[in-house]
């Protein structure tokens, strides 16, 4: 399952964590619900799927940020 949020680039078009507070809360709420429904699921970022994927998204470490869910 993939979850996407709008943003991720700064004013110069470079990768940056641009999530608003509302996006942070909404993402946390959604991931918490999904993790309870699918307890074996891993929460990782797009770039963490494979060493051959060369993407910056998301512009934060999802695996580390949501480790405790």
From TrEMBL:
GO terms under biological process:
peptidoglycan catabolic process
Q: Where does the source fall among the domains of life?
A: Bacteria
Gene3D superfamilies membership: Peptidoglycan recognition protein-like (3.40.80.10)
Q: Which GO terms describe its molecular function?
A: N-acetylmuramoyl-L-alanine amidase activity
Name this polypeptide is given: N-acetylmuramoyl-L-alanine amidase
């Amino acid at each position: 399952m993939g979850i996407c949020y709008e943003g991720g680039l700064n004013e110069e078009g470079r990768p940056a964590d641009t999530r608003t507070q509302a996006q942070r809360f909404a993402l946390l709420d959604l991931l918490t619900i999904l993790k309870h429904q699918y307890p074996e699921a891993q929460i990782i970022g797009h770039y963490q799927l494979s060493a051959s994927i060369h993407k910056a998204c998301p512009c934060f470490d999802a695996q580390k940020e949501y480790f405790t869910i």
